[in-house]
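Field log, afternoon session.

UNIT: design team B
ACTIVITY: writing a sequence onto a fixed backbone
BACKBONE:
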C-alpha cells in the first residue's frame, strides 16, 4: 500500500493542527469530548504545528496575550458537536454537509440517526490521507465523501452528483474556514451555500472579528499562521448582518458566553459594544 503523505497545501496544515489539538484534548481528565481517531489523523507535521501554537500561546516567562487555542478549539468542537447532534434529530433533516471536512472524525465518533446522510467535502489529498489513516474503521452514518476543492466552479454539481438534494433541508458546518479566505471569497461562499440550501436548512460557522486580524498583541499567533502560508484574511464585527445578506437568520455567541463556555474559557468576554478587542463568534441559524 502506498503511503499517503501529509496534505501539502498551507491551509491543510490547520487540519493537522486541529487533529493534534483534539488528540491532546482527548487525553485531558477534564476533556470536553473524546476523539479516539484524532491521534491517527495528526500526520507527521501535527505535533510540530501544535508545539508552535503552544509556544506562541504560552510564552515562557511572559503572560499570555493571545487567545488560548487549546481551550478555544475544545469549546468550538464541543459546541458544534452539540449543535449538529441537535439539528439532525428532526426526521426531516436528512442531510449534513461538513465543508471543509479536514481531519474531522464526527462521522466516526458520534452517534447519528438512521435517516441522515453525512457528506464530507474537501480536497482529494485531504480525503485520501484521511481514508488511509482511518482504514479499517467504519463511519457510524450513511457517509459520502466528495473530493473537490471548495474554490472549484463545480463543487455544487459534484455534491449533487454524490446524492445531495438541494430541494431538501440540510445542515451545513463551515468550521475553520472563513478567516482563511478573503472577504470576497467569504461572500461568494455564503452566496453559493445559501443558493444550495432549501428553506429551513441550518448553518453553523466560526468567525473572528476584524480587530483580531490587526491588534498588536495578536501578532504572535497571527505570525505563526502567516509563517505556515495560511494567514488570517477576513473578520467581521457584524456576523449576524453578514449572514443575513445571504438569507440566513443567525445568532452569534462568543466563547465564554452562556452555552459556549463549558467551564473552560479563561478570558473575560467584553460586551459587543466594546471596540478594539479580539473576538471569535460561533454563528448558527437557519435559511429563511
Amino acid at each position: 500500500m502506498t503511503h499517503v503523505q501529509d496534505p501539502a497545501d498551507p491551509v491543510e496544515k490547520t487540519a493537522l493542527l486541529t487533529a493534534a489539538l483534539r488528540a491532546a484534548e482527548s487525553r485531558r481528565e477534564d476533556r470536553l469530548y473524546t476523539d479516539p481517531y484524532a491521534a491517527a489523523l495528526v500526520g507527521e507535521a501535527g505535533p510540530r504545528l501544535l508545539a508552535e501554537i503552544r509556544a506562541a500561546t504560552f510564552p515562557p516567562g511572559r503572560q499570555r496575550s493571545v487567545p488560548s487555542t487549546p481551550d478555544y478549539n475544545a469549546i468550538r468542537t464541543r459546541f458544534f458537536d452539540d449543535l449538529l447532534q441537535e439539528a439532525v434529530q428532526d426526521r426531516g433533516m436528512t442531510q449534513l454537509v461538513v465543508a471543509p471536512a479536514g481531519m474531522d472524525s464526527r462521522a466516526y465518533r458520534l452517534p447519528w440517526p438512521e435517516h441522515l446522510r453525512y457528506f464530507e467535502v474537501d480536497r482529494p489529498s485531504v480525503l485520501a490521507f484521511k481514508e488511509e489513516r482511518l482504514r479499517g474503521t467504519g463511519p457510524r452514518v450513511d457517509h459520502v465523501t466528495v473530493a473537490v476543492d471548495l474554490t472549484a466552479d463545480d463543487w455544487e454539481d459534484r455534491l449533487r452528483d454524490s446524492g445531495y438534494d438541494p430541494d431538501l433541508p440540510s445542515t451545513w458546518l463551515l468550521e475553520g474556514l472563513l478567516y482563511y479566505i478573503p472577504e470576497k471569497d467569504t461572500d461568494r461562499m455564503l452566496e453559493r451555500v445559501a443558493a444550495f440550501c432549501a428553506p429551513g436548512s441550518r448553518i453553523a460557522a466560526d468567525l473572528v472579528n476584524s480587530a483580531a486580524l490587526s491588534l498588536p498583541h495578536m501578532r504572535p499567533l497571527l505570525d505563526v499562521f502567516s509563517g505556515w502560508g495560511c494567514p488570517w484574511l477576513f473578520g467581521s464585527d457584524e456576523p449576524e448582518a453578514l449572514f443575513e445578506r445571504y438569507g440566513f437568520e443567525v445568532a452569534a455567541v462568543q466563547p465564554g458566553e452562556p452555552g459556549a463556555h463549558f467551564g473552560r474559557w479563561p478570558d473575560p468576554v467584553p460586551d459587543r459594544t466594546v471596540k478594539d478587542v479580539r473576538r471569535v463568534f460561533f454563528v448558527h441559524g437557519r435559511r429563511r
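LOG NOTE: The radius of gyration is 18 Å.
NEXT ACTIVITY: expression trials, pending approval
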